[in-house]
Write a structure and sequence with these properties.
Layout (H helix, E strand, L loop, with lengths): L1 H17 L24 H7 L11 H4 L11 H9 L4 H5 L14 E5 L4 E2 H8 L3 H7 L8 E2 L4 E6 L8 E5 L2 E5 L2 E2 L6 E2 L8 E2 L1 H17 L6 E2 L22 E4 L25 H12 L4 E5 L2 H11 L5 H7 L13 E2 L8 E5 L11
Parallel strand pairs: 8-10, 12-13
Antiparallel strand pairs: 1-4, 2-3, 5-6, 7-9, 11-14, 12-14
Bound molecules: zinc ion (ZN).
Length: 360
């Protein structure tokens, strides 16, 4: 009898091991951290069935699709480490850095007149219909003379009003109720800023980035803001994209002043002129808003950023952010090479939540 009991015990132990309980530590359970995977799903079993397969591919699209990290090449220890620290959705969106809270939008946006001009002349430069400027600034007519330094209301909206709506792809899209980028500290809009209109998440993420930059470097150089989109989106020459309020160009932070004839043009980055610390802080702050889909920049600039930032980043942060040093391009990385972007970043933002005709 005792012998039978002993055999039964050994058999049960074997079955228990085979069923995976020994290998499936609590950290492996996708349901611990990801409510989209139902508890008791096949994820823990998968870890037993294939030792080399990533435990939770669905949770780690960026990493499991990353170059050089095919599932079959990942070893068990790294799989376990990753799932033990399985990130929340916001962790992934912020490239595993602490997310920043987006600053509130500005509902009344004033633009400063730079030169002696009139309402009729300044309206197209700001991309605001003259009729709107006159309606927002009572007493003005088309021919009203405007003085440098004078501030005019360029856009006003109620917090309860309709939010900007981005439709289509960025290279074939539109935006309605677009929000203008306000003037602010830490950056400057071009003298004429007809193309500074975007979605709420685009504008708020940019404001959040510049607020972080200006707080850390109050005496740092102002960042050169380029185009976002036109007030109603659509084709914006010379760009192919920038059509739906979700693309933006802005310059790097440099150690030298722009001495060219065009002080508002972007400066090409090289080892001698790039302020890598401030440039990294700027772009890191933007990524930490969680709204960035991709950052296009020349591979040479990406390499400089990698060299500076890599020692401070974890392996999974490097995977999500960079394609270098392994390859020049990777569809999984946030930084992507685009020729012609050696003098500025081109950032593409995510579609705003719930905007179903917006295409990423
Ligand atoms: Zn661009």
């Amino acid at each position: 009898m005792k012998k039978h009991v002993l055999i039964l015990c050994v058999l049960s132990l074997c079955l228990w091991i085979i069923s995976g309980n020994v290998w499936a530590s609590p950290g492996n359970l996708a349901s611990d951290s990801d409510s989209t995977v139902p508890a008791g799903s096949a994820v823990p079993q998968a870890s037993v069935a294939s030792k080399s397969a990533p435990l939770d591919e669905a949770q780690w699209p960026a990493i499991s699709n990353a170059p050089g990290m095919k599932g079959s090449e990942m070893d068990m220890s790294s799989s376990l480490d990753l799932s033990a620290n399985a990130p929340s959705e916001s962790d992934k969106k912020c490239a595993f850095m602490p997310c920043l809270k987006l600053v509130d939008p500005v509902d009344d946006v004033y633009y400063t007149v730079r030169h002696h001009t009139t309402v009729a002349q300044v309206a197209p430069k700001w991309g605001v219909p003259a009729a709107v400027i006159m309606a927002l600034n009572p007493g003005l007519t088309l021919e009203s003379k405007l003085e440098p330094g004078q501030k005019l209301l360029a856009d006003a909206r109620l917090p309860s009003g309709p939010e900007p709506y981005s439709r289509g792809k960025t290279n074939r899209g539109r935006i309605s109720n677009a929000r203008p980028m306000p003037e602010g500290e830490g950056y400057f809009l071009r003298t004429a800023h007809p193309n500074s209109w975007g979605t709420d998440n685009t504008i708020r993420a940019l404001m959040t980035m510049f607020a972080a930059y200006h707080e850390k470097y109050p005496d740092g150089p102002e960042v050169n803001m380029g185009d976002i989109s036109r007030r109603r989106g659509g084709r914006l020459r010379p760009h192919k994209s920038h059509q739906a309020g979700r693309d933006v160009d802005f310059g790097f932070v440099h150690t030298v002043k722009n001495e060219s004839r065009h002080p508002e043009s972007f400066i090409r980055a090289d080892d001698t002129n790039l302020d890598i610390e401030k440039t990294w802080y700027l772009i890191e702050s933007l990524i930490r808003t969680g709204e960035v889909k991709v950052v296009y920049v020349d591979i040479r600039v990406q390499k400089m950023l990698y060299q500076y930032a890599a020692p401070k980043l974890t392996p999974e942060q490097k995977e999500v952010l960079f394609s270098v040093p392994r390859r020049e391009t990777s569809s999984a990385a946030i930084f992507q090479h685009w020729p012609g972007h050696r003098n500025h970043f081109h950032v593409r933002f995510r579609c705003p939540a719930g905007q179903l005709t917006c295409r990423e």
